Amino acid sequence: MNSPFTRIHVVTRGNAWLLRDGNKHPLNTQHLYLTPSYTPHSYECDNEFYLYYIHIYETLEKKSSIFDQMNFPVEIEGDALLLDLVERLYLINPGRELSFYDPGAYDNSTELIKNIAMQGNTPLALELESRGIIQQLLSRFFAYATPKTPNVDERMSRVLEYIHTNIHTPIHIDKLAEISFLTKDHFIRLFKKQLNCTPGKYINQKKIEKAQLMMLIENYSIQELAFRLGFENVSYFNRLFKKLTGENPSQYKKRLNM
């Protein structure tokens, strides 16, 4: 699973496991688990399992995500306040629970689309309270977060901010080199050394992640989606999307609307 949602699980009863980053994490009662968006993961469960399941998606604002910047712990221990906050979040968002929990199919269910539509009609007071609760939950994880790229210097930080802010446009390596005050060849070498991938690969990954989110919350045609993300060639966008997600955009969009 490689979802555009960030997920917080709060376990209340039963046994299950989260498979992520090559590790198998037991899901313990009254603990909270955070899985950032676009993090490949899966689950194992061989019996009844009860939990609160919170999915969070970011807006389409042109800015860097905190999950691009920081590594968060997978698990934190809950306390009375956190568990009360989760209960409160559930109570002020009625009708959002899943009638059937299937981690392998949830992102593609009609319930997901219904919940997103309901979110747009939430009274402002409850919307603000919900956001406040989610921020408090995330703040507990943030207390143990570490920089995702601790060796990135100020030049590469400027480049990353430019990429995230301009992900909807064609991004040229010459421009990134100019921002970093380096020659093109030196910039590419330094970017690869500090980010462990080439600038082109990083840009393409972020564009396809943005495409997944855009398909989830807006009804764009594939051609319009490609153009809105700065692709001049729709065929190339289709090939890149399939390479990075395992299916072409039309298949992905169809699954979202099943």
Which characteristics define this entry?
single chain; 258 residues; alpha+beta; Arc Repressor Mutant, subunit A; 4-stranded antiparallel sheet; 3-stranded antiparallel sheet; 11 helices; 9 strands; 48% helix; 16% strand; globular
| Rg from alpha-carbon coordinates | 20 Å
Number of domains: 2
Order of the strands making up the biggest sheet: 6-1-4-8
Shape: globular
On the 0 to 100 scale, the average pLDDT is 86
Structure summary, number of beta strands:
9
Main β-sheet, in a few words?
4 strands, antiparallel
Strand content of the residues, in percent? 15-25%
The SSE string, one letter per element, is EEEEEEHEEHHHEHHHHHHH
Distance between the termini: 17 Å
Poorly predicted segments: none
Q: Which structural class do the helices and strands define?
A: alpha+beta
Number of helices: 11
> Helical content, roughly?
40-55%
Pfam families: AraC_binding, HTH_18
Protein name: Helix-turn-helix transcriptional regulator
Keywords: DNA-binding, Transcription, Transcription regulation
Domain HTH araC/xylS-type: 157-255
Give an overview in words.
Helix content is 48%, strand content 16%. By secondary structure, it is an alpha+beta fold. The protein folds into 2 domains: 6-147, no CATH class; 154-256, Homeodomain-like (Arc Repressor Mutant, subunit A). A hairpin with a 2-residue loop joins strand 2 and strand 3 (23-26). Helix 2 (80-91) runs antiparallel to helix 4 (124-142), helix 5 packs antiparallel against helix 6 (173-180) and helix 6 crosses helix 7 (184-195). It is globular and about 55 Å long. It starts with 5 loop residues before the first strand and ends with a helix. The mean pLDDT is 86. Keywords: DNA-binding, Transcription, Transcription regulation.
